[in-house]
Structures are given as C-alpha cells and as structure tokens.
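Fresh eyes needed here. Have a critical look at this protein's tokenised backbone.
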Amino acid sequence: MLYRAIKRIFDIVSSLCMVLILSPVFVLIAILVKGEDGGNVFYKHQRIGMNGKKIGIYKFRSMKLNADKL
C-alpha cells in the first residue's frame, strides 16, 4: 500500500514538472498549428480506457483542416 502511494505521488509530481518544462514547446507547437491554416489546435477522439470506460484524448492536430474533403 505504501509503495502504491509513493509511486502515485512520484507520478503526479514528475508529470507536473515535465508539463512546466515542456510548456514553451507546447505553446510553440500551438502557434505553428494555428498559424498554418487557422483551424483548431487540438483534436479530440474517444479511446477505451480501463474497464471499458470511454475517455476523451486530446492531441495536437497534425492534419490539415478539412483533410477528409481534400
């Protein structure tokens, strides 16, 4: 039980540190995606998580706007 608590705390703290360290890169990517064609910066889709629960995953959009119509 103690191991799981320590691991969970480590996971949360390390994730927050990495988000802070990488935030300038995330901002640059967002500016580049928005500047290319003015579309949404993020793409959301559904995945199946633990116990079959559907969860929404956000990703930086990498395709062109209206790519399905091109």
The chain has a mean pLDDT of 90. The first strand starts at residue 42 and ends at 48. Residues 43 and 61 are 5 Å apart (CA to CA).
